[in-house]
Design a protein that fits this description.
142 residues, mainly alpha, 5 helices, 2 strands, globular
Length: 142
């Protein structure tokens, strides 16, 4: 499971679909609707928030918006749109780690998308996150 801190616009088609599915799984975990993945490291940053379910819905909303821009047919009904917004932080080194991780994936999976993002100097976060100086997050498996 990978819930990217990067903006979903950088993902290739396969990556965006995987993000949608994995985040929906994360939502089910946070809602207590599944027994698996309860202690997955990627969920820790959501679990520590005041309202983890609202936060995961907020996260999904941005993924859905990116899918709409690409004319993908994601089910909008999977999101509870009555979420309260939060602005969790992500560290600079976490962002750097994720950029490099994504580049490695794209280099083998989607060379066109790889070339597109490899030329970039700066990367946007997923819209819900705020960047702060810091090391790779404790929950990241390096």
């Amino acid at each position: 499971m990978r819930i990217w801190s990067l903006h979903p616009k950088y993902l290739d088609a396969k990556g965006l679909v995987a993000l949608w599915r994995e985040t929906l799984l994360a939502k089910h975990v946070l809602e207590g609707k599944t027994k698996g993945y309860k202690n997955h490291p990627q969920l820790l940053r959501f679990k520590k928030l005041k309202n983890p379910v609202a936060a995961i819905n907020q996260y999904l909303a941005a993924v859905y918006e990116e899918a709409v821009k690409r004319d993908y047919n994601f089910d909008r009904e999977k999101i509870d749109w009555d979420f309260s917004k939060s602005k969790p932080v992500v560290t600079t080194e976490q962002m750097n780690y994720e950029v490099n991780h994504l580049k490695k994936k794209l280099k083998t999976r989607d060379l066109k998308k790889f070339k597109e993002i490899n030329a970039l100097k700066n990367f946007d976060t997923h819209p819900m996150f705020k960047v702060v100086e810091g090391d790779i997050e404790d929950w990241e498996i390096v």
